Amino acid sequence: MIVVVIGVSGSGKSTIGGLLARAMECEFLEGDTLHSPESIDKMSRGIPLNDDDREPWLRAIHARIVDASRRRVSIVVACSALKQKYRDTLEEGVAVRWVYLKGSKALLHSRLQQRSSHFMKAGMLDSQLEALEEPSNALVVDGPAGPDVIVGRILRQLLA
Predict the structure, then answer these.
(1) How many CB atoms lie within 10 A of CB 45?
(2) Are 101 and 82 in contact (CB under 8 A)?
(3) pTM score, two decimals?
(4) Residue 132: CB partners within 8 Å, gap ≥ 6?
(5) What is the SS3 assignment for 42?
């Protein structure tokens, strides 16, 4: 099973994705690790990425998804995948289960303010929310529940 956990920064993709992968006993890919140094620098300076910046990053994630599919192993991927065309790139030729972590702007902003070491800053949340095209084919998890509760909900729905 290939599961891509999506949402804006602060939604919990890394935390939930890592816990979900552990629960599924499979690989976990933090999509942010595949950003180019130039893109990380840009975001660190508070400049949102554009589609041209994202294209090689999405292709790199897609290659890892395809590799897992070819090896017939499950993988959980954390990736913002804010637009439908980004999700189309990620699932090209591969069956993907989407998990969309949704939260209120206040909750997301609060979480981002608590992070100090991440390149994505709280001031960029508005640009992500503006770019977001909510998926129509995803398992949607909304609300401020704890990570273990959220992972339990996701597992029940994925395995149903």
Answers:
(1) 9
(2) no
(3) 0.89
(4) 8, 82, 83
(5) helix
